[in-house]
Every structure is written in structure tokens, then in C-alpha cells.
Amino acid sequence: MHDRSTEAPAGLEIEISGLGKRYDAARGAYTDAVSDFSLTIPAGSFTSLIGPSGCGKSTVLRMIADIETPTTGEISVGGQTPSQIRTSSRLGIAFQEPALLPWRSVLGNIRFPSELGGRTSIDRGDLTALIDLVGLTGFERSRPGQLSGGMRQRVAIARALSVHPDVLLLDEPFGALDEFTRQKMNLELQRIWAARRVTTLLVTHSITEAVFLADQVVVMSARPGRVAEIIDVDLPRPRTTEMMTTDDFHHIVDRVSRTLFTSQRAALEGVA
Ligand SMILES: Nc1ncnc2c1ncn2[C@@H]1O[C@H](COP(=O)(O)OP(=O)(O)OP(=O)(O)O)[C@@H](O)[C@H]1O
Ligand SMILES: [Mg+2]
């Protein structure tokens, strides 16, 4: 792995237009999970995606990751389809449950995707740099069961980064962590992102986390999810914990909250 910190952003632009997903169920029933979702994610930027439970956030991520096929619309990642991006291993994914292999060490887990083939190989120097990047030096030989929740998430993020991705997709990676650990992880994630400048899309239920990390916060409507509002976060970088007490930060959090609560109310009324 060479040092990319002095180079142009490593990431690719993601262009999503008119995206829709209908899940078919038995006897002609169906769920429209996502509808007419359009969004541009600039190369090397950090975007947070927030919205009511069930509004289709994970579905959007899974379509970008080529795990689900869109029913309508287009996704372009640097001019290529999600399938082309996935098969060339240019995608890093980490979900809420880190899904590490319990019998493998930290090293073994991080190395796992590159053992599966694709365009990437990872040598000893790469691994050492990656483990250092996520702050796990000294734990290379530990098994997941010997690590804390936050450390397991960092292994999952290192594993996602091990394929030199151009796009990093994170689906509530810190949802299971306590507030304090979560804020520490947010600082770590910011540092990792700043070092690699991978185009990153983070799904989160935390408004402060969404604002703290992002260049833009995308608030989704109730299901079928579409973009309700895009809020630019023009706070200076690097973001600091102290910044979270400023009026500027609170102002942006208020804006996200207002749109989110409107979406949430619509979601609840939809259920009632
Ligand atoms: N594989 C599937 N088959 C059928 N329906 C699905 C499937 N996956 C998701 N859905 C439905 O699509 C809708 C959107 O689900 P999705 O998981 O994308 O929401 P979400 O915004 O990620 O929610 P949460 O915040 O709770 O994680 C939900 O109504 C869900 O029941
Ligand atoms: Mg989800």
C-alpha cells in the first residue's frame, strides 16, 4: 500500500438517478422500499444518509453494492455499473454487525477479502500500515472474541479498506456501541477517511454522528424512500469534539432534525 495522503482523492463519484426498488412478496403483494431516489456523491467526499426506520437506507446501500438489483433508475460509480465496481474489488463494505470470522486473528480477518481474489493483493507492509491506520497495532494475533465492540468495528473497517476501495459503504457501523466509544470511533473514522479520501456513504440513526462526519447529510423521506433534503455541512475540517458545542453545529443539527422528524411523522402515520 502506498501513501495516498498527499494525492488527489482516491474515490469515485457516485451518481444515482431515479432509483427505485420494489420487493415482491407472495401472492402479488409487494413493498416499494425506495422510489425516485436521486443523489450525487462527489468523489472523495463523505455523505451521511439518515431517515426513519424502514425508509430504504440499507436498500440504497445494497443496490450501490450490487447486492440488490434496482427496479428502476441508474447508479453510476465513476462511470461504471455497481457490478463492474464490485467485481474489480473497488468497494469496501462494513455493516452494523461486523461479521468477523471468529477463528481467524485480526490479521487473518483483514486479509480475508484479498485471499478471495479480485484485483487486489495485500502484502505484509500493506497490512501493517492498515492496522496502524485503524489503531490496532499490538492486536494482530488477537481473535475477535478477545476484542471490544469498538475494536471489532475497526477490524471490519480495516477489512473493508484492505481491497483499496474507491467507495466505502458503512451501514450503521457504530449502532451497537455506547455514546463514548461511538464518538471515539467517529474521530477514528474521520482520520481514516481523511488519510485515504475514499468516497464514503454512511447510514446512521444518529443526527450528531451524521453531521459530525459529513460533507453533506441526506435526509430520506418515509418509505418509499426518496431524498427529502440535502444539507451541506460547511464546518471546517478536521472536526473536533469541541465543535459539537458551537452554534454552527447546533444550527445544522436543528435543520437535519426538523426534516427527519417530518419524515418520521409521515412514517408513523403511514403505519397507523
Ligand atoms: N429482502 C427484502 N425482501 C422484502 N422486503 C424487504 C427486504 N429488505 C428490505 N425490505 C423492506 O424494504 C423496506 C426498506 O428496508 P430497509 O432495510 O432498506 O430500511 P432501512 O431504512 O435500512 O431501515 P432501518 O433503519 O430499520 O435499518 C422495509 O419495509 C423492509 O421491510
Ligand atoms: Mg437498515
What would you say this structure looks like, in words?
The protein is α/β, with parallel strands linked by helices and 272 residues long. The protein has one domain (45-61, 80-268): 3-Layer(aba) Sandwich (Rossmann fold), CATH 3.40.50. The protein has eight helices and nine strands. A six-stranded mixed sheet has the order 5-6-7-3-8-9, with helices on both faces. The protein has a three-stranded antiparallel sheet with strand order 2-1-4, with helices on one face. The longest helix is centred in the last third of the chain and has 25 residues, at 247-271. The termini are far apart. Bound molecules: adenosine-5'-triphosphate (ATP) and magnesium ion.
* SS class: alpha/beta
| C-alpha Rg (nearest Å) | 18 Å
Largest beta sheet: strand ordering: 5-6-7-3-8-9
Series of secondary-structure elements, N-terminal to C-terminal: EEEHEHEHHHEHEHEEH
By CATH reckoning, the class would read Alpha Beta
Taking all residues together, what is the mean pLDDT?
A: 90
Secondary structure: helix percent: 25-40%
